[in-house]
């Protein structure tokens, strides 16, 4: 009996060892899963030699300020730059090749959004509040087409069909899942958008075929444009395109369901002309 029991015990040891290894492997796999974070949006818990850095040229902006985002990697990598605004709208910053296919950035070089010397109307699309920028770097090109449907909104911005930090994090956790854990990493930065109160500006009718007002104000062109754009956003419209055609005018196309309206703001001295017109 003693010999039999001893033989059974010996046969069981490899089985126990096998079970232990399976459990350890399961735990290792679970720990390698991307982690969602309120502070950092999405984090890779697996150590990686790949590092990415993202920063802004200022901590706070108002309409009309010059915005620059800087991204840098320590290895050759594809970089994807996302912005989550105070309302939870997610955009992919596409200037200078930062687009759905990713930007191939060489080691120890810095990319700037927007490209140097290129003005950007991106600030005019953002509501007041705290914004967060997420830089996702990968040594392999990622398939963001599976993340969501992209809509071209401006030359330098693509709107992503997910909402908020959690929505972006969940979508990206699926995107990076096929990649080896050590091949990707992330970094975040944040900045604040503030809008100056311009007081009671005359109203324009978004329901009319065309509505126009003229008034005097001590304000920048960008401030007046944003004030009327905010009224449209409060009424459920989203920004489709913006155009900074001249230094004395700004134009934007806004959409709500199947309705599109064009907002045009012109400035001459202190005189402003604001027009809202329906587009088919």
Automatic annotation (TrEMBL):
Domain (DUF4384): residue spans on this chain: 61-140
**Which UniProt key words apply to this protein?**
Signal
Stretches of the chain forming a coiled coil according to its record: none
Return the InterPro entries for the record: DUF4384 (IPR025493)
Keyword 4Fe-4S assigned to the entry: answer is no
Renumbered to this chain, the signal peptide range is: 1-32
Q: Name one Pfam family in it.
A: DUF4384
* UniProt keyword NADP, yes or no: no
**According to the lineage, what is the superkingdom?**
Bacteria
User: PANTHER family, per this entry?
Assistant: S-LAYER-LIKE PROTEIN
Put simply, this protein is called: S-layer-like protein array-related protein
Q: Organism, per UniProt? A: Deinococcus maricopensis (strain DSM 21211 / LMG 22137 / NRRL B-23946 / LB-34)
Q: What is the lineage of its organism?
A: Bacteria, Thermotogati, Deinococcota, Deinococci, Deinococcales
